[in-house]
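Appendix B, Record 12. Input sequence as logged:
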Amino acid sequence: MGVGMLSPNLDAFGRYIATTRSGPTAKRYLIAVRQFLDWLDRYAPGKNVTQAPRDTLAQYALALLQGNYQSTTIRSHLAGITRYLRWLESKYSAQIPKFNEPELPRTKRKAVKDTLAPAALADYFEAAGMLEEPVRTAALLLPCSGLRCQEMVSLPLACLQRQRLQQVDGTTKDVLTLRVTGKGGHERLVPLLDEGAAVLVEYLRGWRRAHKNPRWLFPGRRGPMSTRALRNAVQLVRKPSGLLYTPHSMRRTYLTTLFRQGVSPTVLAKIAGHGNVQVLVNHYLQLDADDIAGAVHAAGGRLMKTKVKVKGTAP
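Logged structural output:
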């Protein structure tokens, strides 16, 4: 399989990756592979990936670094290329060399996650409420559900589940829960916060009832609403505020809010679709000084059960 014969396979790879990754990720991976193959044709003329030197990926990563690419972008490129190589092995039984692992500069993770403060969240609700349906309701549900953008637009109409809960004071409360299929095809239940439930009920009784599509909660022209439409809506809403939040900021806001209200990290990990609680703690919960001190003193804040009088003079 020569270098020139690899290009037609990119269409097949593009169809394959679109079924295993979200739309934006699939597009990034395909672009990364195209760019890599163009570079390989210059780096090792006449050779394809089965004949490439073992230092090929390391040299490609170095070329990207010299081109002022950030380490995170290079890692994304390499992830797409690795996926392509595995696909070649599986589909064409290609003998891919064991390439040397590229060495990249380590990047420090940001300690503070981007959640929306109450004032910014109120502005978001006001601005998002002016959008056209169905993107209006989808945008308003983001901070009320913590769903990923792809998960939101892919919700089937049958995902809605109504539950009646018994409250501590003896009263009952009707709540809405979303049955969501997330990464890896795993299904989970996501409780919708009260503000989102009110918005969704209004949507179902109004615009959605008049729409004839029986399958999708947020229908588009030829299927579900696109992720691009939802992301563009969030960008439009945030412009007047000058803030740079994203749909993922809404996910962090939802999870951090529930944590502050006493929901345990274990339960939050299940709601978020994380197999590892540490992922939730490290990357999604924004805990400030008040959260940390408050958690300790809400549990008592004492070292010993009985008061101890400490002798001596304080400085």
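Residues 1-8, 109-113 have pLDDT under 50 and may be disordered.
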